[in-house]
Amino acid sequence: MLLAIERLNVRFGGLHAVRDFHLQVPRGNLVGLIGPNGAGKTTVFNLITGVYRPESGDIRLEGESLVGLLPSQIVSRGVARTFQTIRLFKDLTVLDNVRIAHYQRAGYSVWSAFLRAVNVQRRERAITEQSMALLEVFGLAGAALEPARSLAYGAQRKLEIARALATSPKLLLLDEPAAGMNPAEVVQLADLIQDLRERFAVTILLIEHQMKMVMSICERITVLDFGQVIAEGTPEEVRTNPRVLEAYLGRGVTLA
Amino acid sequence: MVAAGFGAAWAIPRYQLINPYYELILMYVGINIMLTVSLNLVNGYMGEFAVGHAGFMAVGAYVSSILTMRVIPWDQAGMWFPLALIGGGLGAGIVALLVAIPSFRTRGDYLALVTLALNMIVKSVIENIDAIGGPRGFLVMLRLTNLPWVYVWVVATLWIIRNFIYSNAGRGVLAIREDEVAAELVGVRTREIKIQAFILSAFFAGVAGGLYAHLLQFVHPRNFDIIKSTEILIMVYLGGIGSMMGSILGASIFTVLLEALRFLGVWRMALAPLLLVLLMVLRPTGIMGLKEWRALIPVDERWRLGRLRAQKEGAAGAARH
């Protein structure tokens, strides 16, 4: 099991945002995390990545607990993420957005950086080449020297994924990558996600509202409502689960 | 070009090529460039707001002066002068570390308050230590600062800060300015980077303070008050945040202007705030505004980016044919 979450709880004031949450993500899988708005999906991501600290419960990556670590330490353990609302370094170039994410693997000290020693120059060249190769995969290499803010919306979403992959994660958390995309772009994105998963041998946990996409690409799905897991299983099991239908649409309706 | 500059810096005092008064102003310009570039690292590149740079300058001025006056034998002071300056820089760096540890737990205005307080504390601590003259000031008998030394230190400051900015750590600094949470979540150890940048900034302010003390030959707590800190802030924002060329321009223009307007007497002091207001209204990004002069970018990086640009243009050209 790559990621194992047990009995996770967090409260914000009176709101019990995540209640006894549990999740198992096997290595190599693509797991969906769905639920109505405000169900606590992004909060789960924030707990995994160390932005919030859980009140109780445990989050283990390859058997080692992530609870209490700084976000940057969790990145070095192999977890990367994107954001629901795009959080690129907007005034920096597309290339620098990806180069920054090599931070943990720069391989030289700040002292050699002061002198711009030969090893610094060599590593910088390697980092730039790796970043360009990554941008190539996303079709963004041509815009490498443009500021990130100048990219179209869909391209910005892609850049966020590229930046996350630049940390060479074992587990990639995607927070609504299809938000704001048109249907054609969503189809492309679904292909891209499946492609990335093989190319980078990365396990993916996906939050998404685009049901069609989630149902078609995920192996397993966990459904969250009011901070609690209300269903889990294969897309087929989840699709027909009455509690899921109720959470999404109210009683007595069937999901396409 | 750097060597030619040194040649000039060496020849000017040696052969008295220019009026000693202009030579003095050149040295002030150099010292102010060091102060401005170092503050720009924290305020411009990193996007924090530190306002007490003169405090670090004071620590450097007094530590290096004590070293040359009390520790190092008189006849050898000239030889050990660079080490005394580094000592002053390290003193400022240690103070910066003490300030940084609590201040960088939270973000935003907190650092402004802490650095403001630090500036005042440093000043009143000096005023209350009688052994270094207290409020009467401290006489530095040796005029060890000269134009070649100022030049060497300006180049060293620019070179080291530039190398830092165009390294892994420097990208971390820029990421913190852009979005600190996102920076941490792509693996940047933000706290560590903030402390590193802050210490580096204070170090060069300390060295600049040492040069200033051994030029003036008399240091006084009032030399390092909030007004001095404000002047450094103005030079940073006049030249433009996040640009070393901007800081060089900002420091040069402001220093020369302040001297040129000496005939205005006390009214001269109204210039600085007025300039700041005009700047905010007319050109909030300063003269350079995040742009950099190509020559200040490390050669290997400049070459790499140039090749990427050429590749792209080549591809665009090929697509047209």
Biggest sheet overview of chain A:
6 strands, mixed
Any idea of the CATH class of the largest domain in chain A?
A: Alpha Beta
The CATH topology assignment of chain B is: ABC transporter involved in vitamin B12 uptake, BtuC
Mean pLDDT of chain B: 92
Return the string of H and E elements of chain A.
EEEHEEHEHHHHEHEHEEHH
Short summary:
The complex is a heterodimer of chains A (256) and B (321). By secondary structure, chain A is of the alpha/beta class.
Characterise this structure:
The complex is a heterodimer of chains A (256) and B (321). With 256 residues, chain A is α/β, with parallel strands linked by helices. Chain A has 2 domains: 1-78 and 169-256, 3-Layer(aba) Sandwich (Rossmann fold); 91-160, no CATH class. Chain A is built from 10 helices and 10 strands. In chain A, the strands form 2 sheets. Chain A has a 6-stranded mixed beta sheet, sandwiched between helices. A 4-stranded antiparallel beta sheet of chain A has the order 2-1-4-5, with helices on one face. The radius of gyration of chain A is 19 Å and the shape is globular. Chain B is mainly α and 321 residues long. Chain B has a single domain, classed as ABC transporter involved in vitamin B12 uptake, BtuC, CATH 1.10.3470. In chain B, strands 1-2 form a two-stranded antiparallel ribbon. In chain B, helix 3 packs antiparallel against helix 4. Chain B is globular and about 70 Å long. At the A-B interface, helix 2, helix 3, helix 4 and helix 5 of A face helix 6, helix 7, helix 8 and helix 13 of B.
